[in-house]
Design a protein that fits this description.
heterodimer, A: alpha+beta, 6-stranded mixed beta sheet, 5-stranded antiparallel beta sheet, about 25% helix, elongated, disordered C terminus, B: about 280 residues, mainly alpha, two-stranded antiparallel ribbon, about 70% helix, globular, binds adenosine-5'-triphosphate, binds magnesium ion
């Protein structure tokens, strides 16, 4: 455990004198060199968590360690961190050069030559050498973002913190900058934490994701594990585009298997793939990813009967928007649309073993994942 | 099509603006002309003799040389402006940024105080100045003047500070700057247009001050405003030599125009924008 870079232990945060808590009993461990995303909907406390890590907010209770050092009372400047803000927070009255030099100028005894060398060095890495003499207002959003990055990196921090660093960029630039940040982080061996509400961004850039809701970490795992085995309904609904389908069902044990009756069909699930102790009752929610549903001709095993509403073209694939019952929507990802007609009935088969079963009452995932639990949740 | 509609209606606005500004422009034009002409209408520079000698003015009143009054006015206006900005900036910053009890109430009080007419408080000021022994001193007048306009300027300045994003201050903190360094190197620059507005306004208002000086300073004509007032106070106003008065008034507005030319660039640049925000 010696290579743990950051440890947050039982962190709580209240802004109103402990009447309401924005962060509740949060525990998070980040290894050296890891890239971690704090992911969650607006207002869930991502920024608050980051602000506590960089020392701008104090936790109401709990401890934060950087390595073996307790940093609760350490000022931001002494935490050896670099920070990129959502608004970039460039100093409007200083040139790009002076913006990047600013952190160095706050350190006593750094001579002009060293400052100049370091500024140019980092400007080259982030590719903004050409703009050093400009004022921040004369730069595009993407260029400003790069300046903010260079300013965060110029003191060669151990930890890089990014609060929604790409939310002000257009879609293409986002992809570009995302790759660059990832590359920089690897090359410089930084430990990085990024705050984002964009699950795609989090999946693409980080090695591990903490999914937050209402101040609580719902699941902290690698992207593929979050995708394959979401711990509860919240994580399941938050991760993945197009999103997972949810279908209500009633579970009934029949010998070696469970029979699950849903409004659109009956599915059979092997008994050993459900954690019985997690079930509070017989009501469950089935979570099925759109790509695990396949159009079939007739009614065979494990099929659902739906009605096709419309078809969306995603390039290589088609996204079929269907429904059952009143207006319960189900999305199906399909390679082709042969033989189906709008407003007509379609039958889809569910990949066996792809179903996530959630207890309706607790929202917890009660599916047993034999192969993955062995290497997925540790570390 | 829309574009043409806009132009069609625009002439009404232009006409209104033109007529409205005539009301202002005509007296200035008249002043310019009068300052350089004899009552008979011939060109002359004799109206400007107060620049270099005592001038018999009217009914035995002798106008002194104007320069001491100009200097007093300049000092009075500059002191007012500097004191004003010096108190406004830290106070407004504190109200904008720090959490303390009664912060909201204080802001509300500022707005009310700003609306108080000076005249209503004159008796009070007489009393205060007498008590602290600042009657008949410029220090006393500056004190009253600044005191009266502080609530308004603090309130205005708070608005400018509110516009500076917290992120910038936080960034500076992470970068290792102390709160004071951040204030001095970053925040002050970000509110420069606001400071300029207050500096220029309070200087001009000090330069224009007539009533308070007239009331609290016993000697006559010691500033440019009261120098001009001297002529007004003469009895039989109908026969006042307008030429001399126009010349003095022209001299009086000159610094105002100069100040505008110097400061307009900053004043017009109200937003500097350090980042492209959504
Ligand atoms: N300075 C503050 N004072 C009081 N409440 C605050 C403060 N900052 C944040 N909050 C509250 O704490 C909660 C979490 O805010 P936080 O900024 O951490 O959310 P977030 O996850 O970063 O959301 P977003 O994606 O919108 O940035 C919100 O309910 C917010 O209203
Ligand atoms: Mg946030």
């Amino acid at each position: 455990m010696s290579d743990m870079m950051i440890r947050m232990q039982n962190i709580s945060k209240s802004y109103d004198g402990e009447k309401t808590f924005v962060i509740r009993n949060l525990n998070l461990e980040i290894e050296r060199g890891e890239f971690v995303a704090l992911l969650g909907p607006s207002g869930c406390g991502k920024s608050t968590t980051l602000m506590m890590l960089c020392g701008l907010y104090r936790p109401t209770s709990g401890r934060i360690y950087f390595g073996d050092r307790l940093v609760n009372d350490v000022a931001p400047k002494n935490r050896n961190i670099g920070m990129v803000f959502q608004s970039y927070a460039l100093y409007p009255n200083l040139s790009v050069y002076e913006n990047i030099a600013f952190p160095l100028r706050q350190v006593k005894g750094v001579d002009k030559k060293t400052i100049d060398r370091k500024v140019r060095e980092v400007a080259e890495i982030v590719k903004i050498e050409a703009f050093l003499e400009r004022m921040p207002a004369q730069l595009s959003g993407g260029q400003q973002q790069r300046v903010a990055m260079s300013r965060a990196l110029v003191k060669k921090p151990e930890i890089l913190m990014l609060d929604e660093p790409m939310s002000n960029l257009d879609a293409r630039l986002k992809l570009e900058i995302r790759d660059e940040i990832k590359k920089l982080q690897g090359e410089l061996g930084l430990t990085a934490i990024i705050v984002t509400h964009d699950q795609e961004e989090a999946m693409a850039i980080s090695g591990k994701i903490a999914v937050m809701e209402k101040g609580v970490i719902q699941q902290y795992a690698k992207p593929d594990e979050l995708y394959e085995h979401p711990k509860n309904l919240f994580v399941a609904s938050f991760i993945g585009t197009p999103p997972m389908n949810f279908i209500d069902g009633i579970l009934e044990r029949q010998g070696e298997e469970y029979v699950c009756r849903t409004p659109c069909g009956t599915l059979r699930i092997p008994a050993q793939s459900i954690l019985e102790q997690g079930l509070k009752g017989s009501k469950v929610v089935l979570g099925i990813r759109p790509h695990n549903l396949h159009l079939v001709g007739g009614d065979t095993e494990n099929c659902l009967g739906l009605r096709l509403d419309y078809v969306e073209h995603l390039g290589k694939d088609l996204l079929l928007k269907c429904h059952y019952g009143e207006e319960e929507g189900v999305r199906v990802l399909s390679g082709l649309s042969a033989g189906v007609h709008l407003r007509e009935a379609v039958t889809v088969q569910v990949d066996s073993g792809s179903i996530n079963v959630f207890d309706k009452e607790s929202g917890e995932n009660v599916t047993r994942f034999e192969e993955v639990t062995s290497h997925g949740t540790e570390g | 099509m829309k574009h043409e509609d806009k132009i069609k209606g625009a002439w009404k606005i232009f006409l209104f603006t033109e007529v409205a500004s005539l009301v202002v422009v005509i007296p200035y034009g008249w002043m310019m002309v009068k300052a350089f002409t004899t009552p008979e209408g011939a060109f002359t520079l004799s109206n400007w003799s107060f620049l270099y000698q005592e001038t018999p003015f009217f009914r035995g009143l002798v106008l002194p040389v104007i320069w001491p009054s100009v200097i007093t006015s300049l000092i009075f206006a500059s002191t007012t402006a500097l004191l004003q900005i010096g108190v406004t900036i830290p106070t407004a910053y504190t109200i904008s940024r720090m959490q303390f009890r009664g912060r909201v109430q204080l802001t509300k009080l500022m707005i009310i105080l700003d609306a108080f007419p000076t005249v209503a408080l004159l008796i009070g000021f007489f009393h205060v100045l007498n008590t602290i022994g600042l009657m008949n001193t410029y220090a006393g007048v500056v004190f009253v003047k600044v005191g009266m306009s502080l609530p308004g300027s603090i309130w205005l300045m708070k608005g400018f500070f509110d516009q500076v994003p917290w992120d910038i201050e936080w960034a500076a903190m992470v970068d290792g700057a102390s709160r004071f360094t951040t204030f001095r190197k970053i925040i002050i620059a970000a509110v420069k247009p606001g400071s300029a507005v207050i500096l220029v306004n309070s200087f001009l208002s000090g330069w224009a001050e007539y009533m308070l000086i007239n009331l609290f300073i016993y000697s006559n004509g010691s500033t440019v405003s009261t120098f001009i007032g001297l002529m007004l106070d003469a009895e039989g106003k109908t026969a006042v030599p307008y030429g001399v008065m126009a010349a003095a008034s022209l001299l009086y507005v000159l610094p105002v125009i100069l100040l505008f030319i110097v400061s307009q660039k900053t004043l017009l640049k109200v937003s500097q924008g350090g980042s492209k925000q959504l």
